[in-house]
Write a structure and sequence with these properties.
The protein has about 350 residues and is of the alpha/beta class. It has a single domain, classed as L-2-Hydroxyisocaproate Dehydrogenase, Chain A, domain 2 (Alpha-Beta Complex), CATH 3.90.110. The strands form 3 sheets. It has a 6-stranded parallel β-sheet with strand order 3-2-1-4-5-6, with helices on both faces. Strands 9-10-11 form a 3-stranded antiparallel β-sheet. α4 links the parallel β4 and β5. α4 runs parallel beside α5 and α6 runs antiparallel to α7. The chain is globular. Bound molecules: nicotinamide-adenine-dinucleotide and (2S)-2-hydroxybutanedioic acid. Nicotinamide-adenine-dinucleotide binds next to β2 and α4. GO terms for molecular function: L-malate dehydrogenase (NAD+) activity.
């Protein structure tokens, strides 16, 4: 049920989407390590009429290159802050891969000073140009970036919690791969909910709920859990100063965008884990399995059963998420105060 939306690796090719109305997807940060392969994979989603690529660096070359891929739909380049709103205009889905990646020795939280302003800028521009878009952030630190964006959307009067996501699909992708390898089965066969957040111990794969059932003992569960929680750092260290996961993130991000599009297209039973505004636990933002629909989140799936050790791990991560949410909201308040922005009425189309 939690298998990457329940559609076996149909990430990208979903023939029924062909029948759906035309769609615009905007990738912000499309020139980056994630942005480029993500845009390529999104290019294979049927039904996209326009793929808008935005970055601070010139996007013309990348857009020309991607426009030669034998798929229908236009690819349009947008460059610089002044072209952000045009890039977003009438977008159905906005996916944000803009911002600094980690270097060895850094925690994701250390990126907030650099990346918080990306969340503010994009949420502000979305409020003006495409307030009904589904807005999905890849940019770290996810645990703070999503609360920051929510606060900005609130100030602009365009906040709809069903439409705002932090993409945690890479945690599910990694869980499927590591557990599949350990059970000697295809990762595609593994279904597992990953809840909490997207940093260290806030990433909580519920191995007790894995389907098919995980056969290993407590030591193996502990080791796998730790590997999933630290997988991002494994890549950061292996890249030794050249950034963090890009290709696996592009794979995960394209899958998530494909699921958002399937939801918009009215497909039933599209399930994904994502970091969203939530009342399932005490912190106001939390990652859990969600059913996606035309307007984003259609249904919060109640938290699955958990083993005693998973319940303990959940209790430990909740205060971290609560603090991260407060910090993210405060970042937005401080930023907007400096720029003297308060309660701007929304300009709805
Ligand atoms: N959610 C996840 O699971 C996950 C996984 C991997 C990486 N990430 C995060 O994704 C982000 C991007 O990583 P990357 O490896 O692609 O970095 P990168 O440096 O290769 O690319 C980032 C791109 O964003 C662009 N950019 C920066 N500010 C911008 C702005 N205001 N508007 C438009 N474009 C802007 C840059 O020009 C660059 O092209 C990082 O914050 C990283 O931590 C998240
Ligand atoms: O680890 C990082 O900084 C990037 C990303 O969050 C990941 O999990 O790979």
């Amino acid at each position: 049920m939690f298998l990457l939306g329940g559609q076996k690796s149909s990430i990208i090719i979903a023939p029924w989407l062909m029948a759906v109305r035309t769609l615009k997807v905007t990738v912000v940060g499309a020139g980056g390590g994630i942005g480029q392969p993500l845009s390529l994979l999104i290019r294979r989603c049927p039904g996209i009429d326009e793929l808008a690529l935005h970055d601070l660096s010139d996007m013309k070359g990348i857009a020309a290159d991607l426009s030669h891929v034998s798929q229908s739909g236009k690819v349009i380049a947008f460059t610089g802050d002044e072209e952000l709103e045009p890039a977003l205009t009438r977008a159905d889905v906005v996916v944000v891969a803009a911002g600094m990646p980690r270097l060895p020795g850094m925690q994701r939280d250390h990126l907030m000073a650099a990346n918080g302003c990306v969340a503010v800028k994009v949420a502000t521009a979305v409020s003006k140009a495409s307030p009904k878009a589904l807005l999905a952030f890849i940019t770290n630190p996810i645990n703070m970036i999503v609360p920051t964006a929510a606060e900005v959307l609130k100030v602009h009067g365009t906040y709809d919690p069903r439409r705002l996501f932090g993409i945690t699909t890479l945690d599910v992708v990694r869980s499927k791969k590591f557990i599949g390898d350990s059970m000697n089965i295809s990762p595609d066969e593994v279904n597992i909910p990953v809840i909490g957040g997207h940093a260290g111990i806030t990433i909580l794969p519920l191995i007790s709920q894995c389907q098919p059932g995980f056969k290993g003992g407590p030591k193996e569960v502990q080791e796998l859990t730790h590997r999933i929680q630290e997988a991002g750092t494994e890549v950061v260290n292996a890249k030794a100063g050249r950034g963090s996961a890009t290709l696996s993130m592009a794979y995960a991000g394209a899958h998530f965008v494909g699921s958002l599009l399937r939801g918009i297209g009215g497909q039933e039973g599209v399930i994904e884990c994502a970091f969203v505004a939530s009342e399932l636990t005490d912190p106001p933002f939390f990652a859990s399995p969600l059913e996606l629909g035309k307007d984003g989140i259609k249904r919060y799936i109640p938290l699955p059963q958990m083993s005693d050790s998973e319940k303990e791990a959940l209790e430990k991560l909740l205060p971290i998420l609560r603090k991260n949410a407060e910090e993210g909201i405060q970042f937005a308040k401080n930023y907007l105060k400096e720029k003297s922005v308060s309660h701007i009425p929304a300009v709805l189309p």
